[in-house]
Amino acid sequence: MRHSSRESSSNTDLRNQRNSQRAFTLIELLITTAILGIVLTSVCGIYFSTSKEWERQQGEAEALMATSRTCSRLADYISQATGAALDSRFSANDTLLLNMPADQASGIYVPTWSGGKVQYRSGVWLVFYLSDSTGSIFKTGNILWGGTITGGGYPWGVNPDAAWSMYYNTGKGRIAPLVSISFSIDSTGTRPSVTVRAVARYKTGSTYEQITQSRIVCLRNAN
Description:
The protein is an alpha+beta fold. It contains one helix and twelve strands. The strands form four sheets. The chain has a five-stranded antiparallel β-sheet with strand order 1-2-7-8-9, covered by helices on one side. It has a three-stranded antiparallel β-sheet with strand order 10-11-12. Strand 5 (112-114) and strand 6 form a beta hairpin. The longest helix is centred in the N-terminal third of the chain and has 77 residues, at 2-78. It is elongated.
C-alpha cells in the first residue's frame, strides 16, 4: 500500500510538471506572436512610409524637370525674337506669340541696315501654348506645343510643329505634364522682356503638390 501511494504521488508530480511545461510553452508562443506582430507592423509602416516618400520625390523631380525645361526652351526663342504678343485662350495670357527675325546665315539671325540703324526684318510668327496630344490651338491640355502661323493668320492658321513639340521623357517628347503656363510682357525697359511662369503638379499620397518656376527673358533682337 505504501508503495502504491508513493507511485501515485510520483505520477501526479510528473503530470503537474508536464502541464507546467505545456503552459510555459503556450506563454512563450503568445509572447513570440506578439513580438512578431509588433515587428511586422513596424516593417510595414517603414515600407509604406518609404514608398510614399519615393513617390513624392519622383513626382517632384518630374514636375521640376517639366517646369525647368519649359522655361529653358521658351527662353531660347524669346531671347532671339524681335517682338512678342499675348493671347488668352482658356486662361489669362496663356499663349505666347513671337515674331522671329527673317534673315539667317549659318543658323544665326543677321540684321540689316534700315532707317539709319541696324534692325532685324520681321520673319515668321511662332506660337507657344498648352494643348492635348493633337496640338490643336482650340484645345487645352498639359502638353507644351510650339507652332507657326501660316497664311490663315491667328488662330486659324496655327500649324502645330510635331518636330518641336516632343514627347516628355523620351528622345523626342513634348514637355508635360504641366498644369498651367502664363506670360507677361514688360516694355518699360530699354528692350522689352517676357516673363514665363510654368506650373506642374505631382501627387503625394492622396494630395497634390505644385512646382512653379518663372523666368524673365529679354528680347535681344527687338528693334
